[in-house]
Design goal:
The protein is of the alpha/beta class. The protein is 31% helix and 19% strand. The chain has a 6-stranded mixed beta sheet, with helices on both faces. Strands 9, 10, 11, 13, 14 and 15 form a 6-stranded antiparallel beta sheet that branches. The relative contact order is 0.11.
Length: 401
Amino acid sequence: MSDAIGVDTPRLVCLHIPKTAGSSLRETIKVVYGPERMHWFSDDDGILGRHWFKESAIADKLFIGGHRPLNYYPSDSAHLYFAALRHPVERARSLFSYFTRPQEGGSKGNIAERQRLKEQWVKQGIVPESLLRSIERCKPFREAIDNEQCRYLSTGAANFEAALQTLHSGNFLIGNSTHLGSLLNTLGTTFQWPETREVRTNISVSKGEDDILSEPGVVERILELGAEDMKLYEYVQQEHDGLYCNMPDRDSLLASPLHFTDAKQRAMSDLAWRKLELSAVDPQEKARHGRTTINLCVRNGSREYLNPDCEDRIAISYKLLDEQGDIIERANPRSPLETIVGPGESVEIPVKLVVPDNLPSKVASVRFSVMVEKRFWLFRICPEHALDIPVASTESDSLAG
């Protein structure tokens, strides 16, 4: 990732539609680029900050966002804008709960903040006991669910056609708030991020049965107000399998500091190691006594590169197990991994194997694992990645039986 950031540098911009998991996206991506390279526009930026884009606020930033619609940002930029959509009914329910049920905030700090919000919204006409009456009596709340998602993503009218025209004209990645992994993985693969752990924030803790949507007519009223949002939501879900992607300026984006250019020359992260898979080329093959070779397959399920030059003697090694599954401690050969394994790629390795006959315990199986010298046996930090292959019975075993 380059350090050079200029006025024309493409940036990653989160259009955080309220109650669509924008905070979770922010906290996940902040780890990738670092908090010092993120600016999140908030209501605390001041009155002017709510209405005018300030280039000075993001002079050295790569990742920006906040509760700001697309038309808040300069229209001539090559930024990559992304957002998560949510079903209009579920979004309205979540928004109402957030404003009226502070007890579901979880932590004391969240509860206190949501209590403050509740007091403010009650003054504006919201009715904590009724979502339907809140829609009719509280204009700001009604506006907040009146095709708000289309408004955020459109440079024109707040409707499906205008939003779709906008999405077709620029760099956009639009996903689903309940399946953030797909959106994050696409960003990570595009810009060759290190593996990141998805963060979930603002999760309400229900205090009993949720009856918000049980009022007669409330769902119908929400769908009436959010008819255009529903078209947009269904378009992304049904026409694009939950993830709309349009990047006409892909080359510029990949040439920008958003892209990690050192991806092949960095050691695997802990999260990436956990996505490594080890399997037998022939699932029916058994290990045999004496000196043999067994063909194994290493698959890299992460978005990082497994580069032997960046690790300390990476190899496939093994332990011998007795009939109780206990490890028979003994020095064993290591078969080095000498090929770069890229994201989603696999490589076959012939692993040299020695199963002696003169051990105090009978060898029942062999446990293979990736091993990095002086760091770890992968199966010890990720037990699910152990590959156990049974040892074929010898002729003497058959006679003894």
